[in-house]
Amino acid sequence: MNAEKPTLVVIIAAGIGSRLTSADTLPKPLMQVNGRALILRVLDRFYEAGIKDAVIVTGHRADEIEQGVRADNPRNHVQFVRNPRYTLSNGLSVLAARQAVGQRSFFLSMADHIFESSLIAGLKEAPLPADGLVLAVDRKLDAIYDEDDATKVKTQNGRIMEIHKELPEFDAVDTGLFSCTPALFDRIEAAANTRDDGDCSLSDGVKAMSLQGTALVHDIKDGKWQDVDTPGAVEHAAKLF
Fold first, then answer.
1. Which of 226, 239, 223, 228 is nearest to 32 (CA)?
2. Does residue 61 sit within a domain?
3. What range does the domain containing 104 cover?
4. Could you give the CA distance from residue 79 to residue 60 in angstroms, rounded to a whole number?
5. Which single residue of 11, 91, 138, 146 could bond 188 by disulfide (Cβ 3.0 to 4.6 Å)?
6. d(CA 50, CA 25)
7. Can you tell me the distance from the alpha carbon of 225 to that of 214, in angstroms, rounded to the nearest whole number?
């Protein structure tokens, strides 16, 4: 049985982004590529793909990011939630959106990943398993910028078998774009509860779903995307888009 198609997007914009920003620069989500802030590009692409409701999770420099988004008067309906534990792993930022999402299926995107709206459209058509997720992956390994920093994915028959930045063997790369059911919140919370510090990464939640066979992949094929995490990546993204 498949879940309903996502009707909103959760955008993670809580991290410090220390490899790209400093105290005297804009917060990372507001840094621009070709004159448009990263997070606004994400909102634009989802609006173009017909997803008009957005939940943005902030943490580090939250006031500035929220003011920057509001000042643009985006076409999307935007709700902000805050993750007070933003210095820990990104799974806690996903978990912070739980109440705002409720029981709806949702897209999940990083604020510093930019991509074509066709990636969202393709992912939207991919069957979303009940109590599962679908990760958009790039199999064009020879074209990945800064592959060492990318999150690697090992797949089999369309399912995620392993996901980690340091996988020795992999056949795809995580684009930072998912369609999800609320079951992801349960998996992240369960993983966090096994640690004394309550920390948990998004990948830990994905791994838990993969063990149940409900973490699938969608190949973006010729679609374009870029994780904008370093000055070099900014330059590369500016050429790509």
1. 228
2. yes
3. 8-135+176-194+224-240
4. 17
5. 91
6. 33
7. 25
Rounded Cα distance, 179 and 124, in Å = 7
Q: Which of the 8 DSSP states describes residue 101?
A: H
- Residues 117-170 have pLDDT tens digits of 999 999 999 999 999 999 999 999 998 988 888 999 999 999 999 999 899 999
Region of 110 on the Ramachandran plot (φ > 0 left; ψ -120 to 50 alpha; else beta): beta
Residue 127 located in a structural domain:
yes
pLDDT for the residue 23: 54
* Cβ partners under 8 Å of residue 188, min gap 6: 91, 92, 94, 95, 200, 202, 204, 205, 208
pLDDT digits (tens, 9 = 90+) for 4-60: 999 999 999 999 876 665 556 889 999 999 999 999 999 999 999 999 999 999 999
Count CA atoms within 13 Å of residue 231 on its CB side: 3
Rounded Cα–Cα distance for residues 176 and 73 (Å): 25
The amino acid that residue 166 corresponds to is E
The rounded distance, in Å, linking the Cα atoms of 78 and 104 is 16
Q: Is residue 50 part of a domain?
A: yes
What is the Cα–Cα distance from 60 to 84, expressed in whole angstroms? 9
The pLDDT of residue 99: 97
Residue 90 belongs to domain with CATH number: 3.90.550.10
pLDDT at 18: 63
> Does 82 fall in a domain?
yes
As beta bridge partners, residue 32 has 37
